[in-house]
Amino acid sequence: MTTISRHPAAEEQPADGRRRPAFPFGLWRRRPAPRLVTDFDDPALARLREAIGAGDWPAVRERLAAAADAEELCWLVWHASGTPGTTELMGRVMDREPDGTLALLMAGAHHIDWAWEARTGARASQVSKEQFRVFHQRLEVAEDLLYRVAEREPDWVAPWFMLQVSGRGLQVGPQIARLRFEAAVRRCPGHLGAHRQHLQQVCAKWGGSHEEMHDFARESMLSVPEGSPLGELVALAHLEHWLDLEPGEDAEYIGRPDVRARLLEAAHRSIGDPAFGRPRDWIGVHNTFAMALSLAGEKEAAAAAFAPLEGRVTEFPWHYLDSADPVAAFRKWRSRAGR
Q1: Backbone angles phi, psi at 230, to 5 degrees
Q2: Would you give the distance in Å from CA 137 to the centre of its chain?
Q3: How much is the pTM?
Q4: What are residue 31's phi and psi, to 5 degrees?
């Protein structure tokens, strides 16, 4: 099993006295070609997207109703809500069954995705007044739909997780944002998505600060047992900090010894721990660590993060390096890591 050391140049000394790298990968194999994964290799999500693309609401509803638990339902709806054809499908569905709880949830999630589509990923100064008007209008619709779901299904984490995202776009403020995060984690304490969204809420670009962001990430990681995917928050925080700096300053920052040590510690406590296994979003977590450790110059640890992926690429966070071709960025840095 791949291991990740806490220290940059750590090596283990076996009993036979021979030096052995601290990152055993087993036999080297031909590297699988990198490919963008949109369904996280999740068959249930792939089938759900197929049903949405076919405009088959009964099949969509059946697949959502078959979710194992509230966390899986949240995962499926959130990652399927941007599937091409969702706008047309949910328009028809809401006309026919405007009070169906699963329809309300899917429509709410889709309105968030649809809102960001209108806003685009441009900086605020480059977004027009009309784009902001449509952005806010669609988010307000999403909020209404999601609150209706929350009232009907008080145990569901999904509406509260999604309200974190809509609330950030509507700039509801830190107090309400914190309440929505707490509502999500009361229902699902280790919910990675809810923690990721709150990390965004407290980062500098959304009105927080680097200090608040790093504190939240580290406190979250230390509050759970080793092997939890919440260790990814530390890597995400350092990537956000890196992204906020000017060229030259960014590389200097993420290559600092203290930053590298924190990244290695987080990797050791999450993807490097045997308890990590294959949680629902393990592919995303490994991609985050692979990029952060690569930028930090930790080639061995980065290689350990790349190895289990076998070429699976997630758009985030690689689009930070190449928005047009995240796969190219992945390929470049995987090669530099020797994988």
Answers
A1: -65, -15
A2: 25
A3: 0.89
A4: -75, 130
d(CA 251, CA 204): 19
The three-state secondary structure class of 36 is strand
Distance separating alpha carbons of residues 337 and 98, to the nearest angstrom: 52
8 A C-beta contact, residue 183 and residue 160:
yes
**CA–CA distance, 115 with 132 (Å, rounded to integer):** 9
pLDDT digits (tens, 9 = 90+) for 195-249: 999 999 999 989 899 999 999 999 999 999 999 999 999 999 999 999 999 999 9
| Residue 44, token pair as written in the block | 């249930």
pLDDT tens-digit series, residues 27-84: 345 689 999 998 999 999 999 999 999 999 999 999 999 999 999 999 999 999 999 9
| Torsion angle of C-alpha atoms 249, 252, 255, 256, degrees rounded to 10 | -110
3-state secondary structure of 244: coil
- Percentage helix, strand, coil, to 5, in the chain? 65, 0, 35
Confidence of residue 119 (pLDDT cuts 50, 70, 90): confident
Q: What's the first-to-final CA gap in the chain, in angstroms?
A: 16
Instruction: Name which of 74, 83, 71 is nearest 47 in CA terms.
Output: 83
